[in-house]
UniProtKB/TrEMBL annotation:
Enzyme Commission number, as recorded: 3.1.6.-
Family label: Belongs to the sulfatase family.
Lineage: Bacteria, Pseudomonadati, Pseudomonadota, Alphaproteobacteria, Rhodobacterales
Organism superkingdom: Bacteria
InterPro entries cross-referenced by the UniProt entry: Alkaline_phosphatase_core_sf (IPR017850), Sulfatase (IPR050738), Sulfatase_CS (IPR024607), Sulfatase_N (IPR000917)
Domain Sulfatase N-terminal: 80-497
Alphabetized Gene3D superfamilies for the sequence: 3.30.1120.10, Alkaline Phosphatase, subunit A
Name of the protein: Arylsulfatase
Molecular function per GO: hydrolase activity
Residues covered by region (Disordered): 27-57
Amino acid sequence: MVFIDGRRLVAAVGVLAALSAAPLSAQDAAPAPGSPAATTTIDGRQLPPPPRAFGGKIEDQALESTPWWPPQVVPPEDAPNVLLIITDDAGFGVPSTFGGVIPTDTMDELAAEGLSFTNIHSTALCSPTRAALITGRNHHSVGFGVVSEASTGFPGYNSLIPKEKATVGRILRDNGYNTAWFGKNHNTPSFAASQAGPFDQWPTGMGFEYFYGFVGGDANQWQPNLFRNTTAIYPFEGKPGWNLVTGMADDAIEHINNLHQIAPDKPFFVKYAPGATHAPHHPTQEWVDKIAALNLFDDGYQALRETIFENQKKMGLVSQDAKLADWPADKLKPWDQLTEQEKKLFVRQVEVFAAYAAYNDHEIGRVIDAIDNLGELDNTLIIYINGDNGTSAEGGPVGTPNEVAWFNGIAEMPVELQMKWFDAWGTEETYNHMSAGWSWAFDTPFDYFKQNANRLGGVRQNMVVSWPNGITDKGGRRDQFLHVIDVVPTILDVAGIAAPMEVDGILQHPIEGASFAHLFDAANSDAPSPRNTQYFEIMGQWALYHDGWWLSTEVNRFPWETPGAPNPDPLNNQVLQLYDLTKDMNQTTDVAADHPEKVAELKDLFVNEAKKYQVFPMDATVVTRLAQPRPSIAAGRSEFVYTSPMTGLPQGDSPNILNSSYTFTAEIEVPEGGAEGMIVTSGGRFAGYGLYLLDSKPVFTWNMLNLKRIQWKGEEALAPGKHVIEFDFKYDGLGVGTLVYGSPSGLGKGGTGTLKVDGNVVATRKMENTIPTYLQWDEAFDIGSDTLTGIHDAEYKPPFTLTAKLDKLTLRIDRPQLSEADIQKLRDAQQRASD
């Protein structure tokens, strides 16, 4: 039993009250040092800041001692909130703000109140741009020379942001900001995206205190692979018509409101990265109807290009004597040569895309309105970047109802077949993409697309910046050359926060971007660009900007093309082109023949930049890289055993059975009355496989890109009791077990599948071809039920929980290995093809 001396208690309470009482009102004086409300700024050179020495007094008795609390770190006075917005796969000519025909009212309004930037550049690909954006460093410098799904084991390409290159989230968090990330996260390695982590490369491990979004290149907006922090969530279940574009805005608004209520004086940093307008293009029907009523696209993609170009001339974005490059008629059929059916389909495709863009801009406006309603808009720096690269052409010349098909080599699905999904375009029944003719038009005044790092259509973006407290040149325009690596130093500059020299005891590499905050001042509207040199490289296509000159490789591959023999020497085995952007801002006139000395000079400069920023070894392979081995929880394993249900294992960490022989063995117990449900599945509506029970009958289904389904079915229902169901597949290909540069050998070959029950064969069938590269990437490997979408809508609906008892599931994979003779034959064939 403990006795309390009442007199001592009263005295202690009095001392604590005296210590916590402010001598003056909070408006009259800062909290006393050592008090619970004490705050401090830091120099920011070392993160987290070193612990402060105890500033109180310790005696034997608490009543004779003086308490002291370490001060809370706060940003410098007047540091603004920051809302960093980046949309996806949108070229220069998409928004109305920069001459486009798609209404982007939110961007228009921000431009009228702030500044328009016409000359900011991306890397030409999604996650490389995003890695550069959050670190202030070039994409190869932070391991993102290509998307994570195609990563390779070299420092510039391994998709691992190094600890010595901390993100803006980490820097601002440790300097007293609240930090959050909404939407697309394409910077967590595909092989570190499971429940087993590690989570240091997730947003929450990179300095963002809150994450609400999806992991990977894109997501079904109706049924996304969604996370809150590192936990999968399913807010769309039971909510018909739910869409992530609105759901994400709702969550961001709620989060910002909560922060303001809890800590109104603490600034926030929010990275807002919607999936729009990356495929699949999934707007609500309301927005499709709004755009369709405008009849913007009935005259075709070439007419659209001319309209955007004329709009840009009227706005002064291009000179009156500027011209457009020729239409690539050999790759994209001119509009007047299309059939009526093709025109009808293509108009439907683009109306859905445009609706997606307008819808997304509207929802961004809701987030900004919420900040305004809190009274925080004047002190919020809003950076709204249109696109992380040029408009995507990955739908190919005729578009596709299923983007997953493109990644598996089907670049031109017949229009007659696509019409099957005409009415459903943009709904949950499609993973849709539009014709590349529209993509070419939406990159006006430039040409080419996403992936083309050598053309301005792939890398030149635009953005608006609004900050009422810091920008007085309302409606101004800035044309200085910038790159996304310049955004982080600009944010730090505005906030008055230094780039750290050390984070968690690790010395930091310098930030490679340069601040453009000085351009916010009207007096500096014509100031020089903060940088005069910048390299570009994606999958062997490269370019260099230097003092108004642009050296680039000639385009040798359109994005939907996958050459059988990639360029083995992308640095030197190229035709080089030279453009004087001071006279020819959109790359229409190659002057390389007139300036051979400048070509040589700039190539040497590119090599120096490439060495400095980890661009080597250069690699021109494309889709085949997706099939190459990389780290994962499953790497190096050939047997997997599961004894209980499990869902949500992402593709990058799940067992990969493509291009291999394999055997699934399920030991189950069927109850009285029969059973149904999913035993094991991977993928979903647009590509995948599953072993399940229908009316107690075993079924194995391969969903071949939503074009057909190949099945093995048992004819007899399983009796109550224990059974062993086995599906064995013998693959006919050589395999890709030994890495051969660019080799497509063994990919997507056929094989024979056999379904057995209790050792007895119940079905045998040969597959002429298999899926070569990738299952549906935003779907998981599930056991005992099926998350998100199913592989066969006509037979079951998720979650399709298994009602039999699963005792054990075993998967054995036999990956064919190439012999040395096979490898040499392939190399010889590649060499002949390159010669």
